Amino acid sequence: MEKSVIIIGGGLGGLTAACLLCKEGYRVTVLEKHYTAGGGLHTFRRGGMSYETGIHYISGFQPGGVLRKFYTYLGIFNRLKIKPLDPGAFDVICVKEDGSRYPVGVGKERFIEQWGRLFPAEKENIRHYVEDLYAMADRFYLCNMRFPDEDMPDLYQSEEIAVPVGEYIARYIGDERLRNLLAWNNALYAGNRETTPIYVHAIISRLFIEGASRFVGGSQQLADAMCGLIREYGGEVICGDGVKEIVAENREVKYVLTEKGRRYEAGMYISSLHPANTLEMIDPSQFTKAYRTRMSAMPNTYSAFVVFVRMKKNTFPYLNSNMYCTDRYAQIWEVGNYRPEEWPTGMMVMTPPESEGDEKYAEKVIINCLMNFDDVRAWENTRVGRRGETYEQFKKACEERVLQKFECYFPGARKNIESCFSATPLTIRDYTGSKDGALYGYAKNCQSMVQSHVSPLTKVRNLLLTGQNINLHGILGVPLNAMMTVAAMTGGIEPLIEKINRAE
Ligand SMILES: Cc1cc2nc3c(=O)[nH]c(=O)nc-3n(C[C@H](O)[C@H](O)[C@H](O)COP(=O)(O)OP(=O)(O)OC[C@H]3O[C@@H](n4cnc5c(N)ncnc54)[C@H](O)[C@@H]3O)c2cc1C
Hints:
Number of strands: 20
Strand content: 15-25%
Number of helices: 14
Low-confidence stretches: none
Strand order of the largest sheet: 8-7-16-17-18-15-19
CATH architecture of the largest domain: 2-Layer Sandwich
Structural class: alpha/beta
CATH topology of the largest domain: D-Amino Acid Oxidase, Chain A, domain 2
Number of domains: 3
Helix content: 25-40%
Bound molecules: flavin-adenine dinucleotide
C-alpha cells in the first residue's frame, strides 16, 4: 500500500508526477475527469483539424535545455515532435500605434544586438539588464537542474527577487518605450508592472530567449507519451470519471470517491487541482480555517478569450514566430487591465503547425486575448452547451471584435477565414477545472511573497499537492513543481536532480 499513489487530475502536473513516481517504483493510478488526459496539454479535433487548448508555446527543448534533460530522463524526449521557432524572431511585437514590428531573436547576444540597434543610446543598459536577468535566472537551482552551493545560494529567500518587474526594468532602462517593449511577453505570466516579482519575468524571459519552440501536431503528444510511459510501468490512467470526494480521518486520506461512485485506495494521494478545489472535496475539519481561507482567497491570474480560426488553403502564411499585437506601447502592460469598451487592447497570434510539412501556409490560427473572469460572471452558474442566448451573443460580439483587430494587424486575412469558433474563461474553467478560468493559477505578488507559494505538503499526512498553483506555471514550472512534490515523498530533491542530469 505504501508504494501506491493515486493522482487526482491528469494534466501536465498530475502526469509528470505520475511518471516520476513510476520511475521511483510506485504503483500509480491517475484519475482524470475529462474523457482524455492532458488538461492544458489537451488537443481537440474539430472539422478535421486539431487545436491546442493550453500549451502552444514551449521552450527548454533545445540541446542542453532543461526540459530536454528532463524528458530524456523520463525516456520520452525522442517521442516528441518539436519545431524550433525562427531564431531571428521567435517573437514579433506588432504595435498598431505606429505600425512598427520588433523581432525578438534567440540568444542573449542577439537580444542585445537587436534591441541595441533600435535603441543605440540604451545599448549598454540593455546589456546590463539582460546579463543581470540571466544571472538571476541562473540562481534558481531547480530551473537549471542544479542544487544550491555556498557560492550560489538559492534565491527564493532573497529580497532581490521580490522587486516589482516594472521597477526592475526601469532601474536599467531610461527610454519609456523600450521599458514597455522589454515587457512584451508579460502575458505569458499574467504580469503586473507593480506587483509581479522580477524572478518570474527573469525565469520565463531567459527560458524563451534560450530557444523557443512549438509542438508539431499539438501538445497532446506530450500527454499521450506520459500516459504511455505510466502504462509501460504498470500504472493506470483512468479518464472520464472525476474525483468528487477525498475521504480522510484523523488527517489521513482513506480513499477517494469518483463521480461514477467508484472508490480508489492507495498509500499516498496527490491532487494536481487548484488547492481551493481540492479542499472543497475534503472534510473541512482536516485543515485549519486559516489554511482553507488562504487557499480560497489568494487572487488568481486572469483568463482569456481564445479564437480558433481555420483559414482557406494557401492564403495565410505560416508564421514561425508568435505575434504579440498591441494597440499602443503604453498598453503592453495593460492587457489584463482594460476598459471594457477598448477590449481587446492586445492579442497573441500563433500558427501551430499541423504537420512537419507546414512551412509556407498555415491552415489554422489561434488568437489569444486576455480576459478577466468578471466579463463572463453573469453566466458563472451555467455549464458547457447550456449557457443561453445572451452568452452566445456575447461570444459572437467578442469574436467580431477580435477578428476586426486581427484584420488591422494582418490586412486582407479576414476574407480568407473559412470558419472560426471561440472559447471564453468559462470554457477554460469548465474543461480544466481551473479556478475562474485562470490561465496560470495563483497570481504572484511581490508584496506578499510567502502568500504566492504553496507547499506540496499538507497537514493531511498522505495528501500532497502539485500542479501550476504550487509555484511557477506552464511548460517549465509545472514539471518542476511535480519534482518538488515527488521529492517530498521520495527523500529529497538532490537524488532526483542527479538522476535527471545523469540521463543526458
Ligand atoms: C488558454 C491557455 C493558454 C496557455 N498557453 C500556454 C503556453 O503557450 N505555454 C505554457 O507553457 N503554458 C501555457 N498555459 C499554461 C499551462 O496550460 C498550465 O500552466 C498547465 O497546463 C497547468 O497544468 P496543471 O497540471 O497544473 O493543470 P491542468 O493542465 O489544468 O490539469 C488539471 C487536470 O485535472 C483535471 N480535473 C479537474 N478536476 C478534476 C477532478 N475532480 N477529478 C479528476 N480530474 C480533475 C482536469 O480535467 C485537468 O486535466 C496556457 C493556459 C491556458 C488556459
